[in-house]
Amino acid sequence: MLRQQPDDNSSKLFLIRVYGEENHNPAIATGARNLSGERRHFIGQRANEIGPLRVFRELINDADEDLLSAGNFTQCPTIETLKKAAADYRQKMHIDESIFTECRILRLAYMRADPITSCIRGYIHEMAEIPFRAHLFTEAQIKRYISYCKKEKYSYVNIDATGGVLKRMCDQKQLLLYAVMFKDGVDAFDTVPLAHAILTKHTVASICTFLDNLAESITVVNKKPILPSFFIIDFSAALMNAILKTFNVENINNHLNRCWNVISGKYTAQEVRSLSFIHLCCCHVMHAIARSLTAARIDKKSRKAILHVFAIILCNNHINELYDILGMIINIFGDPNEQNAKQKLEELLLLQLNVDQESQSMLKDGKKIFKQAKKMKDKLNEVDEYFRSNTPIIHQSPFNKEAIRRYPNLANLVNNKNKPNKIDNPLFSPSVIRIFYRWWAYLPLWTGLLLNFQERYSSDIKQTSLVTYKPVRYSNAVIESYFRTFKRSIIKGKKSNRPLDIITELYGSVRAQCKADQFEIKQSAKGRKRRKKNVLVEEEWGKTKIRTVYFKTIDQSTSKRVRTNMRNNQSNGTTENHNESNGTTTTISSKDKSKLCSDQSDDNSSEK
Question: Compositional bias (Polar residues) spans (predicted)?
C-alpha cells in the first residue's frame, strides 16, 4: 500500500521480484479467478445481448495463449458462470426499473393528495432516470421559509449533502441526499428542511438545476424572490459556485469584490441586502487549516501556535485589526533577520478569543483538531486542489491585493521560493506565509467581517463606535445534526435504502413538522405554552377564628380519661407486673387487675 497516493499527473514505479520455480502444469490442474466487479457486469450485459455461448466463443478467441498454456483459465469462465452473470445483470436492471416505477407512482399520489388551489402541488417536483434526480419540497416548507426570512433580520440557510443512505444504481454514480435547512426557533423541532434532493450527478450544472427549481417555486409562492442573508456550506466548490450562480448570478471573483465593496461602505442599506453572502463552516475551516499545516510538515509546537493564530483571526470582525495581525505574522514567519520571533509569537498568542465559552473550547482544542486531520488526510488533496486550481482568484482577491499594498514584502515571500543566505529567525518559514496567503484571499468567507453588515457598512446609516458586535460562530452543525438524527432515528442506521423508502420517510417527517408549526407544538416541555395565571386577582382569605372559645372549654380531666380508655381497651390476656422490691413476677388476669384498682380507690377514699 502506498503511503502517499500520487497526483493525477504523476505515477509510481514498482520493482517486482519473483522468487522460486514455476510450477504450472495444466495436465495436473487448472485454475481461474472469480468473475467479479465491472468485468462481471460487462460480461453479463454482453451475454444478455448476444447469448452466453457467443460470449464464451469471443472470450476464447481473445484469451492470452501464454496464460492458457500455464493452466490459467481466468479469461475463459465456464458457460454456467456466464449464465449466472447474465441472470444477475437482468435482476439488477429489473430492480432499477422497479425503482423508477415506484417513484413515478409516488409522485402522482402526492400530487393528487394536495388541493387544486395550491401554487405548488405535490412533493416530487422533478424526476429523471439517467442520471437519476428527484427534487423534493412542498408549498408549506416554502411558506415557512418565507416567513422566517421576513421575520429574521439576518437569516441563515445551510446546504450540505450526505451519503450512505441510498442504494447504488446500475451504471450511475453514488446517490447523495442533499438538504437545504434553516433554524426557525430554539426547539429541536424548529430545524426545518426547506428542500431535499436525491442526485447522482454532483456537478455545478446538476446542483444548479435543483436550486433553480427551488428558487422558481419560492418566487411563485412569494410573488417575488426572497433570499437569506447567508448560505453556510462546507468546502464543496460545486455547492459554492451553484449557489452564487443561482441566487446572486455571479462567480467567486465577483463575490469577493462585492464583499470588499460592502466592507468599504460603497453600498446603501437597500443595495447591501439585495444579495446573499457565502460563509464557510468554522469547524471545516479549522480542520482544513490543520490538514494544510500537517501537509507542510511544520513541527508540532509551531503547528499548534499557528492554528491558535488562525482561531484568533477567525473570531475577529474588524478589518484593520486583521491586517495588523497579518503584519505581525509576516514579521514573525517571513523576516529572516527577526531575532525576537518567538517572543513576538508568544505576545500574539495572548490575544483573547472574543467568542462564547463553547466556541473557545472547540477552537483551542488543537490536539483534537490535529487528530481528526490525520484521519481525514484523503480530503486534503481536494481542499488544497480547490485553492490551487483557483490561483487567479487568490492573486486577484481584493483582500490579498490590499495585503500586498500594506506589506510589499509579502509578494516576494509568496512568489520567491529561494531561501535567503543568512537566516537569524528560528521561525522563518515561507511555507507558513503561503498558507496564510491562500486563506487570506477568502477572508470574509470564514471570519466575522460580514457580521451585522447593514449597520456597520451601509453608506446611508450613521455608524457609531459605541456599539460592540460580538462574532458569531457560523457552523454547519445544524444540518449535520439533522443528518445524524435522520440516519439513526428515522431509517435506523439502515444503508442501501431504495429511493422510495427515503422519500416516504422524508415526506412523513415534513408533514409532521408542518402540522406542529400550524398548531405551535414544541418537542420539548420548555417550549410549550402554559396556562397564564392572573396574579392581580385578589385572593379570598378564610374568616378569622375566635380561639378563646376553645380555651374556655378545655377538659381538665382529659389525661385521666385517656389513661382509663387505654386500660379498658387492653385484651383479656394476662399482664406481667414486676415487683421491684423482691424481683418476683406476679401473673394476674385483666379482670383481677380492674378489681384490684377499684379496691385501691376505695381504700384511698376511706383514708380521706
Answer: 559-583
